[in-house]
Amino acid sequence: MRKLLLYLVVVSVGIIYTGRLSYLQLFNEDAVATNFLNDSAIKAIYDYPERGFVYDRNGELLVANQPSYDVMVVPREVKEFNVAEFCKLLRITEEEYEKKLEKAKSYSWRIPSIFVAQMAKKDYAFLQEKMHRFKGFYIQKRSIRNYQTSVGANVLGSIGEVNNGELKRNPNYQSGELIGKTGIEKSYEDELRGQKGVKYIQKDIHNNVLGSYKNGRHDTLAVNGKDIQITIDAKLQEYGEKLMVNKRGGIVAIEPSSGEILALITAPSYNPNLLVGRKRSKNYNKLHYDSINKPLYDRGLLAMYPPGSPFKTLNALVALQEDVVTPQTTYTCRNGYIYGRSGRKMGCHCGSGKRNVINGVAKSCNAYFANAYRQVISKYDKPREGMNVWSNHIKSFGLGNYFGNDLSTGRKGRIPSGDYYTNDYFKHDKWHVLNTISNAIGQGQVEMTPIQLAHMTATIANRGHYYTPHIIKAIDGKPIDNPHFTEPKYTTIDQEHFEPVIQGMHDVFSMKKGGTARFLNVPGIEICGKTGTAENFVKIDGKRTQLTDHSIFVAFAPKENPKIAIAVFVENGYYGARWAGKISSLMIEKYLKGEITLKDMEKLVLEKSLEDEYAKPLSGKPFTINE
Amino acid sequence: MSREVKFVKKIDWLSILLYFLLVGIGWINIYSASVTESFSGVLDMSQLYGKQLVFIGTSIIIIILILSIEAKFYERFSSIIYVIALLSLLGLMVFGKNVNGATSWYGIGSFTLQPSEFAKAATVLALAKYLSDIQTNINYFSHQLISFAIILAPPLLIMLQPDAGSAMVYMAFFFVLYREGLPPIYLWIGFTLVLLFIITLKLGYIYTIIGTLVFGLASIFIIFKKELKRRRKTTLALTSLVAAIGFILAVNYIFYNVFQQHHRDRFTLVLGLEKDPVKLEKIRKTFGFNTNQSEIAIGSGGFWGKGWQKGTRTKGDFVPEQDTDYIFTTVGEEWGFAGSTVVIFLFVFLLLRILHRAEQQKNKFSRVYGYSVAAILFFHFAINIGMVIGLFPTVGIPLPFFSYGGSGLWGFTILLFIFIKLDANRINEW
C-alpha cells in the first residue's frame, strides 16, 4: 500500500487533468474554439459599401451619396484627455459627452459605437488633425444620401441608424449602421445596401495591431449596393407636388398597361434633404410632431376616405355582370331616390330624368345607382348573400386588401361583405338592403385609399384586368421579372360590360351630354373620368361637425390604349370638378404632352390655397361649409 | 563486455527519451510564445527562445558531467552538497538580487542564478543519505524530527526570500517519508488538517467547530465506551479534539487577519467562496485574470488546436508569464486537446517510469533518491498545470523541463540525471 500511494496519486491527477482539459477544450460552450469571432484577440474592421443610386423611369438620377464622417468610440480604449477641448470640437456639452459615453458602454465596452454621427465635412477636417489626442475615439467615413431632387420624399423615404428592434431582428447590422426606414429605402433595403466588407485583424492585449488574422482568409471585400430604377416620373411627381401646394390630399398616377406607379404625391410634403445627416433627428422630430399638416403621413397610401361617386363605376359594372340591368335599362330620377316605408330620400343633383348606365355615370345620378345596387343585392334570397356576391366582384379588382406590393406602407381599405354586416356591423342577420344603400354611391361603409382609387381606374381603363401597382422598374439595370408585378390579373367582370361604363366616363367630359367635368377638357386628349364629392365629418369639442366636402376625381387617358390612370384627392376641396378634376386634367396633359396648354386652369390651381378652409375647424368659431 | 558498454546498456534510455521529448516540446512552445516579427535565427540571444536553446545545450554538458562522475560521489558528498545549498540560500540575504519583490537570484552581470532550484536536488541527496543510514529508523520520533529538519531547513530559508511556491514543493517529501515507513498517523493528521481547512473556509468556523465537537465527542464515546476509565487514551483523544478546534480558530484568524486580500482571493476562486456573482466576476477579472485568460486561451484551442504559432491569444500576450509558469496555455491553444493530453501523458509516463525504477533499486539511497525525484517532479507538474487549468490556486512555480529559465532547467536536469546515473549503476553495488 505504501508503495502504491504515489503511483495512484500520479495516475489520478493525470486523469483529472485530462478530464478538465476535455471540459475546457471540447465541451465548454463559451469556448471561442467554436467561433473565432468570440475571441477578443480578433477584431473585425468593417468597410462600408456605397448604397445603390436611385433613378426615375426616364433615367434621371434622384438619389446619390455623399461622404459623412462619424466619430466612433471604443469605451475600453478611452484614456484620460482634455474632455472640454474634445467637446468643443464636437460641439457638444460635457453632460452630453458623459451621456453618450455611458450609452456606448451599455452597448459594449469592446465593440465600437457611434459617438457623434455624420459630422459636416468642415468639422471633420478640423477634428481629424487633433484626433490622435483622444484615445479610444476615431473617425469612420461612410456614405450618406444626397438627394438630387426636392420632391418625392414620401416615395424615396430615408435611411437612419438601426434601432434596437431592427438590430434584434437582423444580426447582420451593428449599432450605428444605417438602414432604410421608409419608402423605397425600406422596401429595397436588401438591394440598395450592398454587402459590407470585413477585415479581421489580430490584436494583443494592449490593443496593438499584430496583423491580419490568418492572412485574411476570412476577410471579404465590400460589395456596393445595386442601383435601382423606379417607375416614378420625376417631372410628373414634381408637377403634382407643385399643384398640391397649400392643399392637403394625394395624387396617384398609374400606367394601366403595366401597373407602374407614375406619381405618388402626398401633400403637405417636405424636402427629402431635411432627413439627411446630423440634422436628421432634429428635422424628423419637427415633421413628426407637426400634428396639423402631418407631412410624414403619406396620404396617397394611407388616407382612407369614402370614395364617393367614382365608386359608382364599379357598381355599374357589377350590375351589368349580374345581369340585373342592361345598357338599355333606365331608371327615372326625381331629384333623388325615394325609398323605404317612411319615404326616405337620397338626394341627387343630376337634374332628374331618365337615366341609363351611360348618362347615369356621366351625370353621376344617385338614383340610377341606388336602383341598380338594390337590384344586385335583391337578386339573391337574402341580402347577406347578395352583398357577398357584390363584395366578391369588387374585391376581384384587388380592393379591400393590401396589394402585396413593394411600397413600404399601405392600408387595406374596406369593401364590406354580407358577412361583415351580419357579424361586425349590425351584429344580426335581419338587416335590409336599404340599410346599406349608401354603398351604391360610394359612401356608407366603403373606404378606399387614393392609390386604390387610381388602381380601380387603371383596371377600368384596361377593361377588366390589372397589374399590381408597383414602384420598382429595374434593379441593377435588369427590368423586374417578378410575376406578381408583370402578369395580369383578371376581375370577375366580363370585358364587354366595360364599354358602356367607359362611354359614361367619357361623357363626363362632354359638353353636349352635360357631364360633370365638361369644363375640364384637355385639347387633343380623350379623357375618361369621374367626379366625386365626399361628405366628411370631424369631432369638434365632442360634437360631430360636417366640414366642406372632399374633392375627388379619377380619370384615365387616352380612351383607347390608356397611358395614365389617375386619382386625385383634395381634402375639403368641395365638389369633384372644382379642384381634383382640374388637377387631374393638368396632370394628364403634363404627362401625355409634356407641356401645359391650360394656362388659366394651371394658374388657378397654383394660386389656390385651402389653408383658410383647413383653419376653420381649428378656429374655435362657427363656420360655414361648401362655399 | 567493457564497463562502458555495460553502462550504456544499463542506462534507462526511456527516461532520457522522455526528458528530451519534454524539453524539445517545451522549447517549441517557448519559441511560439516569445518569437516576434524580427526573427534572426533560433540562437538570437536577445530572445527567450535563443537563450533557452543555450540553456538546453548547457544542460547536455551537465548531463554528460553527471553521468561521467562516479555514482558513489553523490552519496558520499551529499552532506557537503546540502550544506553548500543551505549556504547559497543564506547568502542571498547578503548578495541576492531583488527581482519583482523576491530576493531569489544571484546576479552576475546579466546572468542570474536561482539557488532554490538547485537546493531541491541537494535536499533529496541529504534526505536519501540520512534515511539510508543503517542506524536510522523512521519509526523513532527523534529520527522523524531529524528528517523533518533536513526537509524543512531549505524551504524556511526560501520563505524568507519570499518565494512561497518554491517552498511549497518541499511538501512532496511527505510522500517519500511515508513510503519509507513514516507512521500512518501523520497521513491522517495531514488529511484531517487539510479537510478542516477547507471546511472552515467553506462553512465558517462556528459551524465547523460545532460539527467537529459533535463528531469528535460522539466518536470518543463510541470507541472508548468500555474503556472510558483508561485515562491516557481518553485524554489523548480529547487533547486532539481541543487541538483541532484550536486549528480551526487559527485557520479562521490567519485567513481573515494575517492573509492579505490577494491570498484570500486565490482560495475564494478555487473553493467558490464568493456567492455574489458581481463580486466574483470582479475577482475573476482582476485577481483571477491570469487563470481566466489561460482558461480562455486553452479553451480556444479546441481539439486540434490552432496550430504552431497560430495562437491568437498567445501571440496577443493575453496570458501573462506565458514563457514561464503559464507555458502550458500555449500547448493548450496551439496544439489543442490532442497536444495537451500528449504532454500530460508524457509527464505521467515519466513519473511512473521513475517510480518504477526507484522501486527496483536494491540500494536504499538510490531508492529514496529516485522516489524523491518523482515526488518533486510530480508536485511541480500537478501544481503548475492545476493552476493553469484553474483547478489549483495561483502558485508561481515552473513546469519542469518546459518553462523558460536556466536555473530551473538545470536544477531539474541535475535532479533527474543523478537518479539516472544511480539507476544505471545499480549492478555495481553487488
Automatic annotation (TrEMBL), chain A:
An annotated GO cellular component: plasma membrane
Signal peptide (residue range): none
A Pfam short name: PBP_dimer
Keywords: Carboxypeptidase, Cell inner membrane, Cell membrane, Cell shape, Cell wall biogenesis/degradation, Hydrolase, Membrane, Peptidoglycan synthesis, Protease, Transmembrane, Transmembrane helix
Domain Penicillin-binding protein dimerisation: 48-211
Domain Penicillin-binding protein transpeptidase positions: 249-583
GO annotation terms (biological process): cell wall organization; peptidoglycan biosynthetic process; proteolysis; regulation of cell shape
Source species, domain of life: Bacteria
The UniProt record lists the keyword Nucleotidyltransferase: no
Family matches, as NCBIfam families: pbp2_mrdA (TIGR03423)
Protein name: Penicillin-binding protein 2 (PBP-2)
Native organism: Kordia algicida OT-1
UniProtKB/TrEMBL annotation, chain B:
Segments forming a coiled coil: none
One Gene Ontology term, aspect cellular component: plasma membrane
Subcellular location field: Membrane
Keyword Transmembrane helix on entry: yes
This protein's UniProt keywords: Cell shape, Membrane, Transmembrane, Transmembrane helix
A single BP term in Gene Ontology: cell division
Bilayer topology annotation: Multi-pass membrane protein
InterPro entries the UniProt entry points to: FtsW/RodA
One Gene Ontology molecular-function label: lipid-linked peptidoglycan transporter activity
Domain of life: Bacteria
UniProt KW Membrane keyword: yes
UniProt protein name: Rod shape-determining protein
Organism: Kordia algicida OT-1
